[in-house]
Predict the 3D structure of the following.
Amino acid sequence: MLQNTNGTTNSQFSFQTNFYIPFHEVDHAGIMFFAHLFTHAHDTYEQFMAHLELNLNRDWTHEHYLLPIIHAEANYHAPLHHGMTINVQLNIANIGNTSFITEYKFLEHTEQLHAMVQLVHCCIDLHTRTAKILPNELRIKLQRYKK
């Protein structure tokens, strides 16, 4: 789902999706175990890449690059409880020469912020595993979602 983040006609959009917090993701207190937040962030990333028509399941060998995560961080603002439906808003926080940062806001009813995640993806050469300039096609697709 795409949504303009500020109601104007500029090109900034958020990629959005929703998920339900199932019982098996919570601890004895009924609060989502912290590591599951990263699973939901990555699930959102996979949906986002599919939306950009960049299929993560295909054979990447003809592309000659990979996009591994080199840094991950999360900030928790309010508990995430069993049974909640959470809206995830993905934006691109930064696009560098060889990397980009995805930012995820986890909100209840698209209003109350419960958590934020940032993941840094580095473009690396498939064979040498060294940093590589982001492909222009990818850069253009990411730019539309840059904050």
